[in-house]
Amino acid sequence: MADEQHSEVQEGVEAIPAEGVDTEVHALLEDARNKADEHWNQCLRLQAEIDNLHKRAQRDLENAHKYGLEKFANALLPVRDSLEMGIAAATQGQNVDPAKLIEGSELTLKMLAGVLEKFGIAEVNPQGEPFNPQFHEAMSIQPREDVAPNTVVMVVQKGYLLNDRLIRPAMVIVSKAAPGAAPEAGGNIDERA
User: Fold this and answer.
1) Which residues pair with 122 in a beta bridge?
2) Which strands make up the sheet holding 165-168, listed edge to edge?
3) What is the pLDDT of residues 80-119, one digit of tens each?
4) For residue 28, what are the CA distances in angstroms to 14, 16, 40, 87, 164?
């Protein structure tokens, strides 16, 4: 049966004139070459586009690193201006009203706090709160009877968070049970801190 099919195909091929086959094959070959050239050109254009995107992304990243603090710096400039005006007022003459200087300093501090808040910087001021080693750094320990052990009794330096991430822990003084007092549940912080 396979021989019969082969002979039928052979007869069909012999029935097509040789000149027609060459022309048809040549046309198919030319069409395939044109499509291959078109696909090659598309590939080159896509590769160039990818290279341009990569260069643009690299340039944008460099600019972000270089100028990322521009908005923050622009927001801080009025604070600096205010400080300079306060210093200039204090050094200009002997008739400077200390109350006005204090008021100006408080307004400048309020302006700075607004800038910090705008950019996601929050203050950590744990006065009277339980000691938390994730946000506080104990500078010393004081025996105290008036507060529960392991409580922040004094903030030496405030800490700060940037978008809920600690950038500086609060430096604190922590209470411990006074000598002779019964220890409470929860214990004290390590006294070597």
Assistant:
1) 161
2) 121-124, 159-162, 165-168
3) 999 998 888 888 866 778 888 899 999 999 999 999 999 9
4) 20, 17, 18, 87, 67
Strand partners, 137: 171
Q: Tokens 């950019």 correspond to what residue?
A: 119
Q: Judge whether 184 and 149 are in contact, CB under 8 Å.
A: yes
What value does the CA radius of gyration of the chain take, rounded to a whole number of Å? 40
Amino acid at 174: V
Distance separating alpha carbons of residues 170 and 125, to the nearest angstrom? 7
Q: Answer whether 86's CB lies under 8 Å from 101's CB.
A: yes
Give all strands (DSSP E) within the chain, no chain letters: 121-124, 136-144, 152-157, 159-162, 165-168, 170-177
